[in-house]
Design brief:
Elements: E1 2-5, H1 12-21, E2 26-29, H2 32-37, E3 40-43, H3 49-59, H4 61-70, E4 75-78, H5 80-84, E5 88-89, E6 94-95, E7 102-106, E8 123-128, E9 130-131, E10 146-151, E11 153-157, E12 162-167, E13 171-178, E14 181-184, H6 192-209
Parallel strand pairs: 1-2, 1-3, 3-4, 4-14, 5-7
Antiparallel strand pairs: 5-6, 7-11, 8-10, 9-12, 12-13, 13-14
């Protein structure tokens, strides 16, 4: 079973529906014991970094996430979850979870697209990935696949963790991580078949990893 972290700052129901569509057993929870017993954790999120960190800290779920990663439990961050796994976010000048080395930065003003047109912020809509190194998270994802983005900030993790980048006014990291700890800037649950493939890849990894609480 996968646990979808409920910290009042996400689109957990949409993630659950996507998993249930594929027959993947899952639950939405804010119970640390349930999180610990799950095969893997999905950490989604929408909203602002500062508010999300306050909610995580007030509930103690920040500690639960750090323990999960320290114990080797698979974790997948999505959108805001991707951003606050890092050490700091420029949004609200927030000290984040510090699970992954790196910083979340605001898109610069006055960016332009490749055709010279303005690149509006937030970046909203479908965009492609440029895979920089192989990852089982992206297994069977077609090269031309596009994913759905909604964000005004971008992640800058340690360079060796960058898996894929995307271009929108500038090149930014859109997937990072290592086996068992991944994050995507785009919304997997809103990205159609390609997003479902990535979620299924994460679940398959969790089954193989055989995490035991």
């Amino acid at each position: 079973m996968l646990a979808i972290l409920d910290y009042k700052a996400g689109n957990q129901t949409s993630v659950r529906r996507a998993l249930e569509h594929m027959g993947v057993p899952c639950t939405i929870t804010d119970d640390a014991a349930v999180l610990e017993s799950a095969q893997g954790i999905i950490f989604p999120g929408v909203g602002a970094a500062g508010q999300a960190m306050r909610l995580l800290e007030s509930s103690g779920l920040d500690g639960a996430l750090r323990r999960a990663v320290a114990q080797g439990q698979p974790l997948l961050g999505i959108c805001l979850g991707c951003q606050i796994l890092l050490e700091r976010s420029e949004e609200n000048d927030t000290s984040a979870l510090g699970i992954v080395p790196g910083v979340c930065r605001r898109f610069p003003a006055n960016m332009t697209q490749e055709d010279g047109s303005p690149a509006a912020i937030p970046h909203m809509g479908w965009n492609a990935l440029h895979v920089r190194r192989p990852s089982r998270l992206l297994k069977d994802v077609p090269e031309q696949a596009e994913f759905y983005f909604v964000h005004g900030y971008y992640v800058e993790p340690a360079p060796e963790l960058v898996i894929a980048t995307t271009y929108y006014g500038m090149e930014f990291c859109s997937v990072y991580g290592r086996d068992g700890l991944w994050a995507t800037q785009f919304h997997l649950e809103k990205s159609g078949r390609a997003g479902l493939t990535v979620l299924k890849n994460f679940y398959d990894y969790c089954q193989e990893a055989g995490h035991v609480a």
